[in-house]
Write a structure and sequence with these properties.
The complex is a heterodimer of chains A (172) and B (332). Chain A is built from eight helices and no strands. Chain A is mostly helical and 172 residues long. Chain B has two domains: 174 residues, no CATH class; 92 residues, Immunoglobulins (Immunoglobulin-like), CATH 2.60.40. Classes of the chains: A mainly alpha (172), B alpha+beta (332).
């Protein structure tokens, strides 16, 4: 019962520093897959770190990465709801200079995947990203999203089929 | 293409899609936001944790499974007691029990949180039980709020396995009672989920509702066969809430008002009235804009009875009703 005492005494600032170094970049990429917007993704991830710091006395240090991940997924979902309004005020990011041909193709390929993800229902997108990007087992996906394992299976198979269909159609 | 290839092609596509993302944020940016005042929620927790010092190191889902073990004093208890055992689970002390109730807002009925001071035993599961029982059969301290559950609702059992919080209810709860709208029924379920999660203090685990020990397809007519996730707070909670002081509370001047608000540009406005006379007024900002975030401010006033109103601003300029919370308080 007291085995976790050592973890619990890591103070919030130290934890923030360690978790930032280990997880910030990965979480931003996760949020980009969910939001298709890097600026918004960074906002969401920073908010999540601030929220974790604020609640550090209630977070199990061993589970902090999972806690952060869940916060990022939940806040991304809220951010999407609010984005319809925010989009009117937030200019799109401009590309950095004129890229070479190969880079254009690569960027198109990446944009196509992000567009296809963005076109899916929210739950399907979340399940696909947790499964194929984070490689989370089914049980962890279920607890992260607060849904049953059966629902994870359904969303995963429908989402994967839809994503593949879109990607193949657009390649033709 | 076999199964692994199928996994790999989507996995590769997703990894590739964000391979060029170069995060630009810095730790310093986050630091500037965590260096602010000690947030309201932690101030609330301090007395609670002090009352159960040995519990402070119990994290994760372990406590429920080990509640039958002899609690040993943790490091925090050393030096404060000379070999005495930790507080027994049966001894009660006044603790702040988080519980949500229903109140009217310009956007329909929403949830408001109260911290009710109750005599509660010293362990984490005592707080979970107190919050859950208060949610289904307790009364709000603030007369502006109402309790949403039918009067014969009872609690059969409670358990938390580290993943799912299970609440076993008793009563005639399968169908939505006459006179309760679908929205009211859904809000009642959210009220129970939020209260139990707050009492548990382990984030927002999914909640499985049972009826008389059995899985049930509905509770109050709301689908409940699977564990339910809490709805987004910004969708179901009132946009301006006062946590402290409580309605009917006695305070000494100056006193600190704490709460949470999601208001226009994070602006939080308040007035202290004696009858219809505004005695004091002011404004502050919540820690974040556009989502429920903590705020706090100080008020000094001569002894007397007051109505404290904390509210959003009407940016339309058309005199529309604004989100607010009011508390009747006495300054001693």
């Amino acid at each position: 019962m007291l085995a976790t005492a050592e973890e619990a005494v890591i103070d919030a600032d130290t934890a923030l520093e360690q978790l930032y170094a280990a997880h910030y970049a990965g979480l931003v990429r996760l949020a980009v897959l969910l939001l298709r917007d890097q600026a918004l993704a960074e906002d969401v991830v920073q908010d999540s770190f601030v929220a974790m710091h604020r609640r550090w006395d209630r977070v199990d240090a061993g589970k902090a990465p999972a806690y952060l991940r869940q916060t990022v997924v939940n806040r991304s979902r809220s951010a999407l709801r609010h984005r319809a309004v925010a989009a009117r005020h937030r200019p799109d990011r401009l590309p950095d200079g004129a890229p070479a041909d190969e880079a254009v193709l690569r960027d198109e390929r990446r944009a196509r995947v992000l567009d296809a993800l963005a076109g899916l229902p929210t739950r399907q997108r979340e399940v696909l990203v947790l499964r194929y990007y984070l490689d989370l087992p089914e049980a962890d996906i279920a607890s992260t999203l607060g849904i049953s394992r059966g629902a994870v299976k359904t969303h995963a198979s429908r989402g994967a089929a839809a994503l593949r269909r879109t990607l193949t159609t657009e390649e033709d | 293409m076999d199964r692994n290839d199928e996994h790999d092609d989507l996995s590769r596509a997703l990894h590739d899609a964000v391979a060029d993302v170069r995060p630009e944020g810095t730790l310093a940016q986050i630091r500037t936001r965590t260096d602010k005042v000690v947030p309201m929620s932690r101030r609330w927790l301090l007395p609670t944790l002090a009352a159960a010092a040995a519990m402070a190191v119990v994290v994760g889902g372990a406590f429920w499974l080990t509640k039958g073990d002899d609690a040993k004093p943790g490091p925090a208890a050393e030096g404060t007691a000379t070999g005495s055992p930790s507080p027994s689970a049966t001894a009660t002390s006044p603790r702040a029990v988080p519980v949500y109730f229903v109140g009217d807002t310009p956007h329909g009925k929403k949830l408001y949180r109260e911290f009710q001071t109750q005599q509660v035993c010293g362990t984490d599961d005592c707080l979970l039980k107190a919050a859950t029982v208060s949610a289904i059969s307790g009364s709000p301290t603030d007369p502006d709020y109402t309790a949403p559950w039918p009067s014969d609702t009872g609690l059969h059992g409670l358990s938390y396995d580290g993943d799912v919080l299970t609440i076993d209810l008793a009563g005639d709860l399968h169908d939505r009672p006459a006179g309760m709208s679908q929205a009211d029924a859904e809000l009642a379920v959210e009220q129970l989920i939020y209260s139990a999660q707050a009492g548990l203090g382990q984030g927002r685990p999914p909640v499985q509702l049972l009826l008389a020990g059995q899985h049930t397809d509905t509770i109050l007519g709301v689908p409940s066969s699977e564990p339910l996730a809490a709805a987004n707070p910004d969708d179901v909670q009132a946009m301006v809430q006062v946590d402290s002081p409580a309605d009917g509370g006695d305070v000494s001047s100056p006193f600190t008002v704490t709460g949470r608000a999601a208001t226009f540009e994070a602006n939080v406005v308040w007035e202290l009235r004696n009858g219809s006379t505004v005695v004091k007024k002011g404004f502050t900002t919540a820690q974040e804009c556009c989502t429920l975030a903590p705020y706090s401010f100080q008020v000094s006033a001569p002894p007397g009875s007051y109505t404290l109103t904390v509210h959003d601003t009407d940016e339309s300029g058309q005199g529309l009703p604004v989100d607010q919370d009011t508390k009747e308080i006495t300054v001693r």
